[in-house]
Design brief:
- By secondary structure, this protein is of the alpha/beta class.
- The protein has a domain of 126 residues: HAD superfamily/HAD-like (Rossmann fold, 3-Layer(aba) Sandwich).
- Helices cover 44% and strands 20% of the residues.
- The protein has 9 helices and 7 strands; from the N terminus they run βααααβαββαβαβαβα.
- Strands 4-3-2-1-5-6-7 form a 7-stranded mixed sheet, with helices on both faces.
- Strand 3 and strand 4 form a beta hairpin.
- The chain is globular and about 50 Å long.
- The termini are close together.
Length: 199
Amino acid sequence: MNIVCLDMEGVVVPEIWIAFAKASGIPELTRTTRDEPDYDKLMRWRLGILKEHGLGLKEIQDVIATIDPLPGAREFLDTLRSETQVLILSDTFEQFASPLMKKLGWPTLFCNTLEVADSGEITGFTMRCAHSKLTTVRALQSIGYETIAAGDSFNDLDMILASKAGFLFRSTDAIKAAHPELPAYETYDELLAAIRSAL
């Protein structure tokens, strides 16, 4: 029994924080897990910047409403889901991801939750579990699944390396150079072919 575990941002949808950085005119917010391996540190830094600029959940959700999945992502997911089980594992938050999942035909998503004050200020976040991607992959393996994983960032490496087959997708040159043993692909056709060969 196989299950494919995919990262969300950078793999099937654009990076939400990069889109928000452009819309808000705050270039510091373009920093993502491609740049910072420590997700907790990255999120606390982001929340500090939001507070400094008086920005909250509504402003981010307004930008998310303008974001579409990456070209070809819906078709890729529909094809893959017709052939095997697929799970999107993301460090994003329910309050960000829901409109994007609707545009992708509601694939299964495991992610985290924001803590939001009545004022709309994002005051914190609750992670679903520690090392959520690796923990989930290991849990799936413990109940009889073989995992195949793909992602683009530092926080995807654990689940990719722990899976029976793992791939980098539209990753950075630095990550590809640090992990030359991982096949790296740029198109959905390439990734689909690689996943099919691992099934």
